[in-house]
Amino acid sequence: MTMNETTAPGAVDDVIDAFFAERIARADRLAPSYAALWRRAAEASLGGKRLRPRLLLAAHDALGGGDRVSALTAAAAFELLHTALLLHDDVLDGDLVRRGRPNLAGGFAADALDDGLGGAAASAWGEASGLLAGDVLISAVHALVARLETPARRAVHEIVDDSLFVTAAGEHADVGFGLGAIPASAADIVRMMEQKTASYSFAAPLRAAAAIAEAGPDVDGALHRVGTQLGFLYQLRDDVLGVFGAEERTGKSVLGDLREGKRTLLIAFAEEQPAWRRVRHLFGRRSLEADDAARLRDALLACGAAEEIERLIDEHRGQACRDIEDASLPAPLRRELVALAHRIAERDG
C-alpha cells in the first residue's frame, strides 16, 4: 500500500469498528448515557483522512515488516489517539463543530438544551462529555497496543507514551500563548508546533512501524527526524488554513483561530507591522464576526505575513525533501515520504 491512497485502509477501519462495538456493548450495561458517549466517540472517529494509519502501514511495508496484524492494530491505535486529542482540543478551544458537523461536546450540549437544561449547564455537560471521551480513548489506545502479539509491544507502548508526553507540552504551551499566560517568541512557537503535532502525527507512527518491522535504532532515529520535519510542515500549512482555508474543505470554522487569539508564526510575523497593529484589537475577540475577521485577513495579506509563511513552507518543504533523500531508508519509503512532503505543503483541507 502507499500513502497516495485517498480512502482509509478498510482493514484498519474494521479494527476500529470492532473495538468500538465491544466498548459500546460494555457501556450499555452501565448506563444509557455512557453508551451514548461511546457511540458519539465512534462517530467522532469517522470522516478523517486516516493519515496516521496510512503512514504507519506504508512505512511498515516499505521496511519489509511481516507482521501485518500488529501493524493494523497499531495503526488503529494511532487513529484513536488522534480522535482523543481532537476531542480534548475542541474542549480547550471551545469549538462545537468538527469536520463540518457538531462535535461530541456540541452534540451533548445541543441534546441537553433540547431537554430543557439551561445554557450554562448544557455547555458544561458538553465540555465534560468531550473531556471524558478523550480520556477513555487515550486509555483505549494502550488497550489496543497491549493486544499486539509482537516483541515490539513494549517499544510501541513507550512510543505512544513519549508522543503523548511531548504533545501535552505543546498543547499546554499553545493554550498559554493564546491566553497570554506564557510569552511567545517565534522560536517558542516553532518548538510548540514541533511538540503539538509532529510527535504524535508523524514521528510516532513512523517509529512504531519501524519497531514492528524490527528495523533497528538507525532507522528509528532517521524516522524520528523526518517525522518531526513533516509534522512541522503540516502545522505550518494548518495554521494558514485555519485563517484562509475554505470551511467546506477543512471542516472547521475559519473564525476559530482568530477568535481564540491563536499564536502562530503567521501572527508572529505580522505583529510589528503597521497594517496589523491597526486591527490587532480585534484579534482574540470571542464575539468576532465575519466582517472583522475579513479585516484581520486583509491585514495579514497587506503586511506580508501570509507571503512570509508561504516562503517558509517552501523552504521547509525543500529541506525536508533533501533530508529524506539523505536518510538511511529504503528507496521506496524515501519516495513515499518526499511525495507526502509535497502533498502536505500544497494541501487545501
Automatic annotation (TrEMBL):
PROSITE patterns: POLYPRENYL_SYNTHASE_1, POLYPRENYL_SYNTHASE_2. Pfam families: polyprenyl_synt (PF00348). One of its GO terms (molecular function) is metal ion binding. Keywords: Magnesium, Metal-binding, Transferase. Its cofactor is Mg(2+). GO terms for biological process: isoprenoid biosynthetic process. The keyword Metal-binding applies. Belongs to the FPP/GGPP synthase family. This is Polyprenyl synthetase family protein.
